[in-house]
Amino acid sequence: NADTSEVVYEGALVNQISNGMTNETNYYGDFTNVMTPGRYYIQTQMGGTSPIFYIGQHLYKTVASDVLRFFSIQRCGQELSGDVFGELGHGVCHNGEHIVYDQIDITNETVDASGGWHDAGDYGRYVQTGAKALFDLMFAYMANPDSFTDEMGIAESGNGIPDVLDEARYELEWFMKMQGENGEVYSKAVTQNFALDISPDEDNQPLYVLTPETTAAGDFVAALAMASVIYQDIDEEFANECLEKAKITWDYLQEQDYLVAELNPGDINAGLYRDDKDKDERFFASIAMWVATSDNTYLDSAINTLNQDATAANGVNYTNVGAYGAYYYLIQDNAKDNEELYNKLLNSFITEADVAVNNAAIDGYNTSIINYGWGSNGDIVNNGILMMFAYDITGEEKYQQTAVEQLNYIFGKNSLNMTFVTGYGLNSPTQPHSRLAKAKNTQLVGALIGGANSNREDTVSSQIGWDVPPAKVYADDYLCYSTNEVSIYWNGALINLMAQLDLF
Ligand code: 9MR
Ligand code: 9MR
Ligand code: ZN
Questions:
Q1: 206/114 Cα distance (integer angstroms)
Q2: Out of 135, 259, 464, 469, which could bridge 23 as a Cys pair, Cβ 3.0 to 4.6 Å?
Q3: ∠453-68-397 over CA atoms, to 5°?
Q4: Do residues 97 and 83 touch, judged by C-beta distance below 8 A?
């Protein structure tokens, strides 16, 4: 007990695992039985003393608020008032007309595509990653509506609507502007090059919306159809508008029966979000339309897509969103009316979650990934979400227990001895790749950084020797963007996992 110096528990190390990802041997002690709230530390006979930690209820309340508030900090096209956002405050940014860019070059068409969230450390806005973040905010709210208060410190706090829904609506309204007249959906709102390290309101480069993509269209339908259900009791008119717009794009997608994907056209150098498969977006879109309307035509379409590609029901990341659709189907009251579909989706869902659980069981830190690439922290949290979805459906403890370990990794149970959320813990990133924080020379609080990336994809991490094991390739350096960048789709995943675990 850190306050009384009294020894409250003694035990032996119970196990050891050799860890190839970190070049360590990891040892375990189990103090589950110590449940009295307080401040503690652990000492081993080998000589180590741990930092002081807390045992108690609702320890994640403040961090969860800040993780959500990050979305407000990423808002584009709106003033961030200094009263609410302190040194991060800035004037309206990126809200001029956007020039439409087709597959080859600029056209003479322009649209108003202002709004939405800046994606990450850059100021681009991307439908696919925005959708992934929206799915997480909406599933988080559905799982645990009572945790989301109206006082999380954003501009709309106190308006009678849970802040998480104010926040999601900001992006949903931008989505609506990314819809073309025939239902197509532009994929990105960007500038030709990433901005210098300046405040977003000083970035005066011409704005473009890029080529419509079918993955963006599928994401758009899924997000707006889900929103039409969630906002029904909050603002019926808005909810109905969401469904109308979702229908228009759904119809367009039926005519557009093949993948339209585009990397950066012409001389555009925006973020590359490669996704060469749209079946999972189409599948989730169909399920979400079915839930919103109860019209079985949509379910037939989901089954059809699944028959074409069974992997359409996999994934909770920005390229593969199918498992969101599978889970959304499985939790509906009438899901078992179609027993064949129910069993098929349950099976594929559990198979995917089990792979992650089994990987975690043999990893020294119980992390569920087997390689550390760009956004490894996001991958770990996403697996935690899958596990909690599996726990919700099956009630099997192993899913919840392993999901907790994914969160523990993020908050300090890792070989870098770090809390990967800025502003929290004893050792967390101080130089994240965020143009806003850099330009304002101030700290971001509540941002999850990408994490260890053994591929060494920037000039800083490429200096890290090849003797450094995969899970340790990381630098708290602004220029180490392939390990130390922030993003909406990692923060969204984190808030979802925390909500699923009922931690705040
Ligand atoms: O800042 C950019 C970051 O948001 C992207 O994730 C990353 C990869 O696309 O690129 C960063 O921009 C770098 C650019 O690609 C090369 N010059 C240095 C830029 C960072 O300061
Ligand atoms: O998260 C993205 C990762 O999967 C890609 O490998 C990488 C390179 O294209 O880009 C990452 O996303 C960045 C995007 O390109 C630009 N905005 C910031 C994103 C987060 O680092
Ligand atoms: Zn902006």
A1: 13
A2: 469
A3: 70
A4: no
